[in-house]
Design a protein that fits this description.
seven-stranded mixed β-sheet, disordered N terminus, globular, alpha+beta, 33% helix, 797 residues, 26 helices
Length: 797
């Protein structure tokens, strides 16, 4: 018999729920739901799903599960338009991580997620628990984590707050990853004033698994045990999903600090080993990590996926703090916890495994067949039914919390003032009012190489262990995509993450599409075939039409680019409400791509290899400096626009470079992106210690060709005897390609050739037609010291 916990009826009380379950007064409900971040319309929807008013505990459960972070209530209609099917995809959106087959019975699991708001409040723990959470998403699928990439964005590096955030976040990423034994092998670091109050901390994780060990986050089999193992449950992280990740920041709001979770990487390491052993021994029917919304999320999602219900005995949950209220236990986001669905005869083996790894383990409930999530106090009997005298505290249909959560149709509207694309047929010509007029292009190159967004990241990545685990073939020191050996095979995985916020600020469709193209291109230049895309979409308040328009256009660009390049979207994350009193962040579509190299010995890097090698340029520059790092430093002419993206050309370019690399006819391959051709060429020289002599044909304008970031261009080097073969292959793929120079010398010399570099431009007195001629040592010095100097870390004058 279940005894309801309910005070004496008061005037205005709503009708009691099932079994006389406690239901607060209407006035109490109306006050509480707003405190928990629910709107009046959402309260009405909750009543519709329950057929009654919710009580306090149920309202708390709905508040976290219907948060933007957990429910995707604003973005779900957009995300449904993305291509999710593709060759080898064995798990896609809706699972903890995407999984793609790589042959020989093996598969790769990967996902990109955010921990932005917690990192703004408590940078070390926010970043650390972001790493821990994404690692759990990977090993929950049955995969052993082998790498992490971090994509970080902050405000002006000269500001004290930015320096505080950078220090804490970098230490958090490194501290957690280093201790747990997973290498941090790459990522991004970007500075822009829009991130001053709202930094972005996006983390991507990659794991390997045998396909036969693929594990789903589901709760099948009524009568099966619901087992909680790992760390105990405390008050840390309570409300993190709704308080932090689903609301904008107010000025100086100390109430958000308790919502940040606290991580323990040593407990995570034990959790990895115990979870993988349980999976490999076939001891679990389903497995789910506890992240946002804690036990509420783990139970409701696993039950809903299996079409079952779960009854939870609150008294059985191991706790680290006394006196915790039921809602605190149910929505706590204490880290390093897992929920397993276990057949009763196998529990003794599960408990033995957990004990051997030093992890608390408890049966906290049973799978039922009624599709409800039921919370009781007072215990369950051996059949999983509430004992006599037990109190039923909450009863909510699992779908109401998850698959049937509310979905909002938001209003999208472009900003009133924005530069439109040229009308169809209108000529696109290079501006003769370029802002670098009269400047030495060599000085421009040195300024770009020493700028915070393009300089060496050594000061950051030296704080990370990038080689632990012995799978790293090419990490952050290589300058290109990360290359990870698949142990016991000749294969390798290649991973990159990119996000173009500069272009997105003016054209969110183009920015998202270019981000996909660049991430895939960075994988392809190694010779790897891109397998799939994961994404983290970082945008503003979706209730504001302009912010939702940016998100809508970004999803459209993401989908268009993935369809054009033949890449499935295997999962990801949407982070909204990235705003503060100073405004919203630049729209930031962070994209992760994983690819497969069939033979790691044929991997191609971005650095030049040998003096005397031939340098070629595949693709050609187009007009458009807006959104570039050059424009950030030098300004941009009012009439200049964004670069154009031809997705069919991009697909041809990537097919070409993969074929050329696999054919063994390339010595190096470097994509042209941040800082343009001149920076890409300088990086290839700096990383190799080899200069170059180049004659660059100008197809657009000197500034655009040297420093513009128009996509679909590659700087290649090859042995002279293979140069003709590379050119022929490029033309077979319909690509323009030019032989532009030779590797060698201790300087970087770039002479400009063609109609755009002489004549009229020189007559107007423009200095950009001069050659770049800079000592390699000077380029390296500017590049190495740029970031430490910007952050005040440089001890060298």
């Amino acid at each position: 018999m279940i005894v309801a916990e309910r005070d004496a009826a008061q005037p205005g009380d709503a009708a009691p729920g099932p079994a006389g379950m406690p239901t607060p007064s209407l006035a109490t409900v109306m006050r509480l739901h707003r405190t928990l971040g629910l709107t009046d319309d959402e309260l009405v929807a909750i009543r519709d799903r329950l057929g009654r008013d919710p009580n306090d505990l149920e309202l708390a459960m709905f508040s976290v599960m219907w948060s933007e972070h957990c429910s995707y209530k604003s973005s779900k209609p957009l995300l449904r338009t993305l291509p999710t099917r593709g060759e080898g995809v064995v798990a896609g959106p809706g699972e903890n991580a995407g999984v793609v087959s790589i042959g020989d019975g093996l598969a790769v699991a990967f996902k990109l997620e955010s921990h932005n708001h917690p990192s703004a409040v408590e940078p070390y723990q926010g970043a650390a628990t972001g790493v821990g959470g994404i690692l759990r998403d990977i090993f929950t699928m049955g995969a052993r984590p082998i790498a992490v990439l971090d994509a970080l964005r902050f405000g002006d590096p000269a500001e004290p707050r930015t320096r505080h955030l950078v220090d804490g976040v970098v230490r958090g990423v490194g501290g957690y990853g280093n201790c747990v034994g997973v290498p941090t092998v790459g990522g991004e670091l970007v500075f822009d004033p829009s991130y001053a109050d709202n930094p972005l901390v996006n983390v991507m994780a990659i794991g390997l698994l045998e396909e036969r060990h693929l594990t789903r986050a589901a709760a099948p089999g009524p009568g099966n045990l619901v087992v909680l193992f790992g760390s105990t449950t405390g008050r840390d992280g309570i409300g993190g999903a709704s308080v932090l990740a689903s609301a904008t920041f107010a000025d100086d709001d100390p109430s958000k600090r308790p919502s940040v979770q606290v991580g323990d990487p040593f407990a995570e390491k034990l959790l990895i080993e115990a979870s993988l052993e349980l999976i490999e021994r076939g001891l679990v029917e389903g497995l789910q990590d506890l992240g946002a919304a804690g036990i509420t999320c783990a139970t409701s999602e696993t039950a809903d996926r299996a079409g079952t219900g779960i009854v939870v005995d609150l008294d059985a949950v191991p706790r680290r703090e006394p006196g915790m209220a039921p809602f605190e236990v149910m929505i706590s986001e204490s880290q390093e916890r897992m929920l397993a669905i276990v057949r009763p005869p196998r529990f003794a083996d599960v408990a033995e495994v957990c004990a051997r790894w030093g992890l608390p383990c408890a049966v906290i409930g049973r799978v039922t067949d009624d599709r409800d999530i039921v919370i009781v106090e007072g215990g369950l009997d051996t059949d999983g039914r509430p004992r006599d005298g037990a109190r039923e505290l909450a009863r909510v249909p699992a779908p109401a919390l998850t698959s049937d959560a509310i979905v909002h149709e938001r209003l999208a509207a472009p900003p009133e003032r924005r530069r439109l694309a040229p009308a169809p047929g209108a000529p696109v010509v290079a501006s003769d009012q370029l802002p670098e007029r009269g400047m030495d292009p060599g000085a421009v190159l040195l300024a770009l190489l020493g700028s915070p967004n393009l300089a060496s990241r050594r000061a950051v990545f030296e704080q990370y262990d990038s080689t632990v685990g012995a799978s790293t073939v090419a990490g952050p020191t290589s300058g290109g995509a990360a290359v990870l050996r698949v142990q016991g095979t000749p294969k390798a995985l290649v991973a990159a993450t990119d996000g173009n916020a500069g272009v997105s600020a003016a054209d969110p469709w183009l920015g998202a599409a270019m981000s996909v193209a660049e991430a895939a291109r960075n994988v392809a230049v190694t010779g790897a075939r891109p397998l799939g895309v994961t994404n983290c979409l970082n945008y503003g308040d979706p209730t504001k039409p302009e912010a939702f328009w940016q998100l809508s256009e970004a999803v459209r660009g993401l989908g268009d680019a993935c369809r054009a390049l033949g890449l499935p979207v295997t999962g990801g994350n949407v982070s909204l409400y990235n705003e503060s009193a100073r405004g919203r962040i630049a729209p930031t579509p962070q994209i992760g791509v994983v690819g497969l190299l069939s033979d790691v010995s044929r991997a191609v890097g971005p650095a030049f290899r040998s003096a005397g090698d031939t340098i070629l340029l595949a693709g050609e520059a187009g007009p458009g400096l807006a959104g570039s790092e050059y424009a950030r430093i030098a300004g941009v002419a009012p009439e200049d626009g964004q670069p154009a993206l031809d997705l069919e050309l991009e697909r041809s370019l990537q097919s070409f470079v993969v074929e050329a690399a696999q054919g063994g006819i390339l010595r190096s391959a470097q994509d042209v992106s941040g800082g343009g051709f001149a920076v890409a060429l300088a990086e290839a020289a700096i990383w190799s210690g080899l200069g170059a002599n180049v004659r660059l044909p100008i197809s657009s304008s000197p500034a655009a060709d040297l420093f513009g970031e128009s996509p679909s261009r590659l700087i290649l080097s090859t042995e002279p005897r293979h140069a003709a073969a590379v050119e022929l292959l490029a033309r077979q793929h319909g690509l323009p390609i030019e032989h532009i120079g030779t590797v060698g010398s201790e300087r970087l010399l770039v002479e400009l050739a063609g109609a755009g570099a002489t004549g009229a431009a020189e007559e107007r007195g423009s200095g950009v037609a001069d050659a770049i001629d800079v000592a390699l040592a000077d380029l390296a010095r500017a590049w190495e010291h740029g970031l430490p100097r910007a952050l005040g870390w440089d001890t060298v004058g």
